[in-house]
Design brief:
This protein is mainly α. About 70% of the residues lie in helices and about 0% in strands. The chain contains 19 helices and no strands. The protein has helices at about 10-20, 30-35, 40-55, 60-65, 70-80, 85-95, 100-110, 115-130, 130-140, 140-155, 165-180, 185-195, 195-210, 225-235, 240-250, 255-265, 270-285, 285-295, 295-305. α4 runs antiparallel to α5 (about 70-80), α7 (about 100-110) runs parallel beside α14 (about 225-235) and α18 (about 285-295) runs antiparallel to α19 (about 295-305). The model has no long low-confidence stretch (mean pLDDT about 95). GO terms for molecular function: calcium ion binding; calcium-dependent phospholipid binding; phosphatidylserine binding. One of its GO terms (biological process) is response to water deprivation.
Length: about 300
């Protein structure tokens, strides 16, 4: 969604020099930093970071952390990271919290491609010197642990093909498991952690056809089913899922900048345009307008830049 500078206009050396100038003197020129990084694509940001390292022998991210603060610093730092490294940071941050937001793990495990998920796990291991699965197992318990470790450990088939016979069988299995008196989550976890997205969507569709409602309507309360519900929503329709995350982040009594930044930063170069259209359709207000209404200052300016709502 960002307004990208064309290759003819782009100079990583000039960008690096201008960012350095913005960090010198009595105060930081946040607007200059936003006007540069908020309008550079992934490849351009990587070149700016390399140029900054080469010229000043300093990591651009470390410079930004020293000069910026709060929500702005976090959002710009996430934006500047490579996607796999960014996801590794997001996963580690949430697992360090006393009350982890499992949606972060679900998004990484269920929406990223198999190759992207593998890259995230490699980045996590390189950065934190232990595996994502290890930290996830240490931060969760019981069936939530089995479910999240299962989907994070998986390397799913990524094609569009599916087996309708298997889908019918596993829709029945899921129904029996959910409604069984002696509830056993093993089959649910097996299906969710091994089947491809196309196969799972076929199963969920057949479940609805047979039983007359979405599978998530049958879930009772509790952490496990809340996690399972978010996972299925993620798999079924990622764009609709992200539109709901944005609505929740914006409309809560206390706005959730972490969730807002995460969705905007991770989807800006993927499907943010579609997510924005869904948000507008369901909320009768654009994401741009909602952000402008709820936030102020440099953080708002940066988020609007990623949304493509500014005119810079």
């Amino acid at each position: 969604m960002t307004t990208i500078i064309s290759p003819k206009q782009f100079s990583p050396v000039e960008d690096a020099e201008n960012i350095k100038k913005a960090c010198q003197g009595w105060g930081t020129d946040e607007k200059t930093i936003i006007s540069i990084l908020g309008h550079r694509n992934l490849f351009q940001r990587k070149l700016v970071r390399l140029a900054f390292q080469e010229i000043y022998h300093q990591d651009l991210l470390q410079q930004l952390k020293c000069e910026l603060s709060g929500n702005l610093e976090r959002a710009i730092s996430l934006w500047t990271l490579d996607p796999a490294d960014r996801d590794a940071v997001l996963a580690n941050e949430t697992l360090q919290k006393s009350n982890p937001d499992y949606r972060v793990i679900i998004e990484i495990a269920c929406i990223r491609s198999p190759e992207d998920l593998l890259a995230v796990k490699r980045a996590y291991k390189f950065r934190y010197k232990h595996s994502l699965e290890e930290d996830l197992a240490s931060s969760t318990t019981a069936d939530v642990r089995k479910l999240l470790v299962g989907v994070t450990s998986a390397y799913r088939y990524d094609g569009d093909e599916f087996d309708e016979t298997v889908a019918q069988s596993e829709a029945s299995t899921l129904h029996q498991e959910i409604h069984g008196k002696a509830f056993n989550n093993e089959e649910v976890i097996r299906i969710l952690s091994t089947r491809s997205q196309a196969q799972l969507n076929a199963t969920f569709n057949i479940y609805k056809d047979i039983y007359g409602h979405s599978i998530t309507k049958d879930f009772p309360g509790g952490d496990y089913f809340s996690t399972l519900r978010n996972m299925i929503r993620c798999i079924r329709d990622p764009k609709k899922y992200f539109a709901k995350v944005l609505r929740s982040a914006i409309n809560m009594e206390e706005t959730n900048e972490d969730a807002l930044s995460r969705v905007i930063v991770t989807r800006a170069e993927k499907d943010l345009k579609d997510i924005k259209e869904l948000y507008l359709k369901r909320n009768n207000i654009s994401v741009d307008e909602a952000v402008a209404r709820e936030w102020s200052g440099d953080y708002k300016t940066f988020i609007l830049a990623l949304l493509g709502a500014d005119q810079n």
